[in-house]
Specification:
Elements: H1 3-34, H2 45-53, H3 56-78, H4 81-103, H5 109-128, H6 141-159, H7 170-190, H8 200-218, H9 223-244, H10 253-274
Helix pairs in contact: 1-3, 1-4, 4-5, 4-9, 5-9, 5-10, 6-7, 7-8, 7-9, 9-10
Amino acid sequence: MSLFPHASLVFGLLLALASAAMFNWSWVAQHTITSQLPTLTILRPKQSLGVLFGHRRWLFAFLVGVVGWGFYIVAVHLAPLSLVQALSAGGIALLAFFAQRAAGETLPRREWAGVAIAVVGLVLLATSLAGGATSSRHASWLAVCAWFAVSWAAAGISIGPLASRLAPGAGFGLAAGLMYAAADVGTKAAWYGGYDLLIIAPVWLCHGLAFTLIQLSFQRGRALATAGLSSFCTNALPIAAGVLVYSEQVPGGFLGVIRVVAFACVVIGAAAVARKDRDEPEPLKAQAQVQSPLPLGDLERA
């Protein structure tokens, strides 16, 4: 009888590990393909979506990510959130590995250092979940709507005045992460039911914006500066929202210190990845064709 819970935990952690690998591989594979496609534009959404979903290898990479997300949901059900989040955070290191293999060149030490610091921060952040509140309060409409409004404003700044100060595509990747995180925050509110189900509308709007922004970022910058930044935000911001929006308790003592240090590490790591080098070229599509992160076949023939 005692073996079943243990087996469920192990299975949940294996699913979390598989989810991290699939999700991050999917990002880099989508990036590799999207960066070689004709220029996407929000002015012609139907045509741009047709280009993406009409590409068989891009569709395969996208579906791998969807399955990976499904694995994550099951993993959270079977294993503690802190352990699942720790494995999910470590998946960013896989993203960096896949990105390096896709580019066919060694990533700068600054970016590897940024990834390492951010991964440490996210793992510490997951560890700090063990000492927080076990339940959340019903968030007010004002708090949830304020989170949406601030996220949309921050996303606009990221792709607007801030974009030129960041690495190519990083502003769009940051904006996508803000939208994914806002969608997660809103989804938690919608689970309360009743009038809170109306929050599903801005949640789906955030998902649509995030999908659009991340694909546009792939044609502007490298995988780590786009999908990497998006992943940082998606992992860290919902935990902050738990405290600010849902009144979850910050752990006391040592675990509280860990959480503060963790957020600092994530910010430092993200800044290192997003920093613009003086000699960094602007559009990714102007660079030479890159290789696939894993054997996907000849992309030009697809």
